[in-house]
Amino acid sequence: MSTQKFSGICLSALAILAIWFYRAPLLTSLQWFSDLDAVTASIKGYGLWGPAILCILFILQTFLAFIPGQVLMVASGYVYGFSGGILITWASLVLGGQMAFWLARRYGRPFAEKWISTSVLDRWDKSAAGQGIGFYVITLVMPFFPNDAMCYVAGLGNMSHRRFLIANALGRGIASFLTVVIGAFANQIPSLIWIAIVAFTVLGILGWIAAKRYAKA
Q1: Which residues contact 197 (CB under 8 A, 6 or more apart)?
Q2: What would the pLDDT profile of 88-147 be if each residue is shown by its tens digit?
Q3: What's this model's pTM, rounded to 2 decimal places?
Q4: Per residue in 16-53, is it b (16+ CB within 10 Å) or e — as a string?
Q5: Tens digits of residue pLDDT in 81-90
Q6: Nearest 5 degrees, angle CA 25-CA 30-CA 32?
Q7: Would you tell me how many other CB atoms lie within 10 Å of the CB of residue 174?
Q8: Interior CA angle at 92 toward 54 and 194, to 5°?
Q9: How many other C-beta atoms can be found within 10 angstroms of the C-beta atom of residue 121?
């Protein structure tokens, strides 16, 4: 057995032991992320540090799949209003996406596979080949697409940093608007929120159809 393989087995064993030992706080954390009221209460509790904590969580969710970005986006609008929520969410998601893109470009597929499954990378590498800005805007907005994974896919492809930044800013901007508005106007339910809900539902249906088509391509 090679030294590298032995080291990998040891690290995997240590990781499993750590997960088992800390299973209780990990389960508590997962439950916290799924509870919108708990998330908003915690963010408010941080006071002036709330936006910084929220920004860190948005960036981390690009790397840690168990952090639900949609819950954080709704909470951002609920706590900081439409303008503040959009600013925090949009800037944080774009920053996280650019970091994932740059790291995948710099360190290659071995790095990407630490955060995204090999099967997802294989499937979307093929679908993204030769695609431009419009394709990535769609995949960063629509449900049923592996939104965060597409940042790594773009980094492993031939798209330039500038072109991905444009796609990332547009895609994350649209997604932020459609989600933050729900939290910002949750207590008022104006016509705008109904438009956002309908738009997000339509995007979900179209995203499901498009994702299946691209996945088979």
Answers
A1: 182
A2: 999 999 999 999 999 999 999 999 988 888 888 888 888 888 888 888 988 888 766 788
A3: 0.70
A4: eeeeeeeeeeeeeeeeebeebeebbebbeeeeeebbee
A5: 888 989 999 9
A6: 90
A7: 18
A8: 80
A9: 20
